[in-house]
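Sharing a chain and its predicted structure for anyone who wants a worked example. Both blocks are below, sequence first, tokens second.
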Amino acid sequence: MNLFDAAEAQRRREFGMALAAAARPALLAEAKSLASRVARAQGVVTSDDVALAMSEMGLRYEDLGNAAGSVFRGDFEWTGEVVTSERPSTHGRVIRVWRLKENP
């Protein structure tokens, strides 16, 4: 196997994301729904926004585990912007700012 293989890297990414999403389908669907609602209300949405919306419903964003990487797949597009997360568990890393696609 080559040390660098972009196609294989992409294949493994897709496989891993599908596996993680399949492990928590109901919670992921709820997170995606909340992300859509926030994006419609604010114009943009981040994982911090979704975590806040989930906590207001008594749900934990952390319970998504690796499925959190699939929250913005499909109906969302990255704005090109990033912000610093304010959740202590993220250690202040940068997170993407998303918006709903115009015609998903």
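Comments welcome. Helices lie at 6-23, 25-42, 47-56.
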